[in-house]
Amino acid sequence: MAQAIWQNLMFWTDEAAWKVGRDRILAVQVCEDGYDYTLFDGNYHEIDGGQIDNLDISMVEARQDILESFHLAHRDLREINYEDVMERAFEVDRQTVEHFEGKESVLGKLAEATEKVSPTVPLTNTRKQNDKEAGYED
Fold it and tell me: Staple partner for 131: which of 87, 93, 113, 136, CB 3.0–4.6 Å?
């Protein structure tokens, strides 16, 4: 009975979220052409997102289509607060960006190391010098 009531209420809401099994979270919201969705792992890192362009289906049907496409339809569902999910995902994303902003890029470090090690003499001069030392003249 509670499930039927919840499905009927979902016709009147623009957004919803569910804990899917033990390690996935699905957030769905109504958009202009149908439904936007984001699938997160258990730590609120985005796994995938997309849009279902079909205004003729309910949010429950959209949710089912999404779960089936990720082979998650057999997992238990538990309703959770959409706003809490999105706030937590935003915070995790912000922390990830801050973590990487403070890191120097590996390519930058490699370029610096190459500059320190590579000869300052142009290759053509080095070749001419090597040829001269070997006894080859122009």
Answer: 136
CB atoms within 10 A of CB 24: 17
- Closest among 89, 31, 29, 40 to 63, alpha carbons compared: 29
- In contact, 66 and 37? CB cutoff 8 Å: yes
Residue 57 inside a domain? The answer is: yes
Tens-digit pLDDT profile for residues 63-120? 999 999 999 999 999 999 999 999 999 999 888 887 776 666 666 677 777 777 655 5
Quote the domain boundaries for residue 74. 2-101
pTM for the predicted model, two decimal places: 0.65
Name the helix (H) or strand (E) containing 69. helix 59-69
Q: How many domains does the chain have?
A: 1
In a domain, 36, yes or no: yes
Residue 122 pLDDT exceeds 50: yes
What three-state secondary structure class fits 134? coil
